[in-house]
Amino acid sequence: QISMKTGQIHVSTENIFPIIKKFLYSDHEIFLRELVSNAVDANQKLKVLSSTGEFKGELGELKVEVLLDKESKTLTIRDNGIGMTADEIDKYINQIAFSGAEEFVKQYEGKEGAESIIGHFGLGFYSGFMVAEKVQIRTLSRHEGSQAVQWESNGSPEYTLTEIDKESRGTDIVLYINEESIEFLEKSRIQGILDKYCKFLPIPVFFGDKVEYINSPEGEMDEDGKVKRISIDIPNQINNPKPAWTSAPVDLKDEDYNSFYRELYPMSFDDPLFHIHLNVDYPFNLTGILYFPKIKENVEVQRNKINLYSNQVFITDSVAEIVPEFLTLLHGVIDSPDIPLNVSRSYLQSDGNVKKISAHITKKVADKLAEMFKKDRADFESKWDDLKIFVEYGMLSDEKFAEKAKTFALIKNTDGKYYTIEEFKEQIAPLQTNKDGKLIALYTHSLEEHFSFVKQAKDRGFQVAIIDGPLASHWISTIEQTNENLGFVRVDADALDQLIQKEGELPAKLTEEQQTALKPLFESAVDNRKFKVEFKSMSETDSPIIVTQPEFVRRMMEQQKYGGGGF
Ligand code: ADP
Ligand code: MG
């Protein structure tokens, strides 16, 4: 007999507190993201309550302020949102890992604005203790006639709760920055963190002042002595609360997309080649704008420029686990509250939502390219040289993408004409087959290097494709695998010899008699051990005799020329 007993696991705050404080987030700067997100949530919640009629007061100008006071060594995050009563503090703050945000979202599911609440895990607030020796919450609830309260803790499991005087609705979180964290008392450091995480939060966030000049007859002359102007300090808003990806695609013009691109990457000079606006709400939530950059030589430095957001809060710019590798060449923003955060990277890869999101993005990109190709082929062709690496990379690494890309992947010939794979096959079908009837696509990776062979091939009416770039040989083998009757052969004399002239198409231009008379003459003139004389022509305009040099002879001669002589 096995005796069985059930019980409850006890968590002692004494033990768990240091863990939360020190190891919850490996990156200490995250505390600011968490506290500003809470402040934004507090404002968003008030908006929801106002729209349902539960809050009847004036919303006023909802905003978040970050205040730095070097003297008292404090950093304060202030909002004018819902605030908390003493009871609410007890419920939401004194219970670790109970998320008030999650509770709110459940309660107001379906109400406008409820879906944009950021909080989730009920741990963010405590991240303040990573950088502060003491944290105060000074808050006045939205309820009429409530008593303002202050919660204070030095990071031990004890706290104090006192009644205070506070006139304005909302919450101040005051961090008394600890000795090891004085970097967070530097203006530039805080500005940097806000720029990184809070740039697109949905509620205006202010930090410090900035100087602005306005023209006025009472002012001083400007440097050019042209106009009189006065300088004024105005609150410095660090965010754009309505970034382009949150708008409906129909409301945006190309110019809006391009200017948002510059907002994301102020250092980039080129406009992107095209963009894709992601906008899904079922079966997962995903918005965002992906840009296709002009890819420069160095593919490596272009990578990992996609920023991942969750409800407009920046999370990370390493999305390698979320999108297939070839898509990391894209730039832009993905925003999804359905991508689990604060979890390990390896977990991300196996997450069902992440997989679906990744597949969705791949499909969207392929569809967009197909649509561009169909809509304006000339324009697509003009972009092809910049798109090529990306499409080839995609075809090599993702079967589904390859399946779609078959219809728009282009092959450029030596005359600068572009063909789809099928079109190219049609082009070469009349002339370029070997003795087994297999289509032979001639190609070169370098026009300069194969100049004379390309010329010979063209004289004989053949098409030569330019297939170059780092992925060329891999790409050729995938195309060969999916097109059984097609083989790629690098253009050289042997390759040209493999191609048979189709009977009847272009007959010899000289009679038998003429041929017999001329053959010895030619052979004695060109050394018949090294050259081959044939009485055939490959096109109407071609000469009636072809003298070719077999590839092995050419190589041998080359060897001798450079002193090799190993034959
Ligand atoms: P989460 O945001 O995931 O719910 P947090 O630990 O960040 O968890 O915050 C816990 C709860 O404390 C919030 O859900 C909210 O109810 C409350 N709270 C935190 N900051 C504020 C604030 N500035 N104004 C009002 N309530 C707040
Ligand atoms: Mg939170």
Anisotropy-based shape? elongated
Termini separation comes to: 87 Å
* Unreliable stretches: 563-567
The total count of helices amounts to 16
- Mean pLDDT across the residues is 85
Number of strands: 20
Q: What does the largest sheet look like?
A: 8 strands, mixed
Strand content: 15-25%
Strand order of the largest sheet: 5-4-3-6-2-1-7-8
Backbone structural class:
alpha+beta
Q: What is the C-alpha radius of gyration, as a whole number of Å?
A: 35 Å
Bound molecules: adenosine-5'-diphosphate, magnesium ion
Q: Helical proportion?
A: 25-40%
Keywords: ATP-binding, Chaperone, Cytoplasm, Nucleotide-binding, Stress response
Organism: Fluviicola taffensis (strain DSM 16823 / NCIMB 13979 / RW262)
InterPro entries: HATPase_C_sf, Heat_shock_protein_90_CS, HSP90_C, Hsp90_fam, Hsp90_N, Ribosomal_Su5_D2-typ_SF
Binding site for ATP: 34, 38, 79, 84, 99-100, 171, 345
Q: Could you please describe the fold and organization of this structure?
A:
The chain is elongated and about 120 Å long. The chain has helices at residues 13-23, 30-51, 86-92, 100-107, 187-197, 254-264, 345-350, 352-375, 377-397, 399-405, 421-428, 451-459, 472-482, 493-498, 512-526, 551-561; strands at residues 64-69, 74-79, 132-140, 149-153, 160-163, 170-177, 205-221, 228-237, 274-280, 286-292, 305-310, 313-316, 331-335, 410-413, 418-420, 439-444, 464-466, 486-490, 532-534, 546-548. Strand 4 and strand 5 (160-163) form a beta hairpin. The relative contact order is 0.06. The longest helix is centred in the middle third of the chain and has 24 residues, at 352-375. Residues 563-567 have low confidence and may be disordered. The chain is 33% helix and 21% strand. The chain is of the alpha+beta class and 567 residues long. Helix 8 (352-375) packs antiparallel against helix 9, helix 8 packs parallel to helix 10 and helix 9 (377-397) runs antiparallel to helix 10 (399-405). The strands form four sheets. An eight-stranded mixed β-sheet has the order 5-4-3-6-2-1-7-8, covered by helices on one side. The protein has a five-stranded mixed β-sheet with strand order 9-10-13-11-12, with helices on both faces. The site of magnesium ion has 6 residues, from helix 2. Residues 34, 37-38, 101, 119, 124 line the site of magnesium ion.
